[in-house]
Design goal:
- The protein is mainly α and 184 residues long.
- It has two domains: 47 residues, Homeodomain-like (Arc Repressor Mutant, subunit A, Orthogonal Bundle); 127 residues.
- It is 73% helix and 0% strand.
- Helix 1 packs across helix 2, helix 5 runs antiparallel to helix 9 and helix 7 packs across helix 8.
Length: 184
């Protein structure tokens, strides 16, 4: 995947991602070709390969943009020291992308989100706690971070399997109770 700030390239990337998402609503990921993606986007294959190495890169970039969206949502909440506020922001953000979650799960591509959760954690730490650099993260803290990332990822897809019957606030309250029960 190529990193760029060129506005035309960024627009092409956006069009290719949108084309893939549109196609995923109609057919399975493995059945979609790069030619089909570029045709749907109204672009040529050269444009695809100038911006991406493989079709999986489209989804990785989209998941990355969602991770950044989540960081912005957390920052807007204000009280960033409260786990509940961060968790509500997490589920609120994903509640606006339910169709994508369903598509990723159906196509067994939801692991891409797990990879981005690790990236997101790094972004969250840098944005919300700039005084902490990576040298301050001990092995024990890294285990705790990995535990939390896996927990949130699994809860997100459990929420999906239960057809989002609980609100983001109810999901955050469940997580709070789990942690508070373990702290006593």
């Amino acid at each position: 995947m190529q990193k760029t700030q060129n506005k035309i390239a960024l627009k092409s990337q956006e069009m290719l991602i949108e084309a893939l998402i549109q196609l995923l609503k109609l057919k399975e990921y493995k059945e979609i070709s790069i030619s089909e993606i570029t045709s749907t986007a109204g672009l040529d294959r050269k444009t695809f390969y100038r911006n991406f190495d493989a079709k999986e890169d489209l989804l990785k970039q989209y998941c990355h943009s969602l991770a950044l969206e989540m960081v912005e949502g957390i920052k807007r909440k204000g009280n960033l020291s409260r786990r509940n506020d961060i968790t509500v922001s997490f589920f609120e953000m994903w509640s606006s992308h339910l169709e994508l979650l369903r598509i990723l799960k159906k196509n067994k591509l939801h692991y891409l989100l797990l990879e981005e959760f690790y990236e997101m954690l790094s972004i969250v730490r840098k944005e919300l706690r700039p005084e902490l650099d990576s040298s301050m993260i001990t092995e024990e803290i890294q285990y705790a971070l990995d535990f939390n990332i896996g927990g949130y990822w699994n809860l997100l897809f459990r929420w999906l399997e239960e057809d989002f019957k609980m609100s983001p606030k109810e999901m955050a309250d469940i997580i709070d109770r789990l942690f508070n029960d373990n702290e006593e």
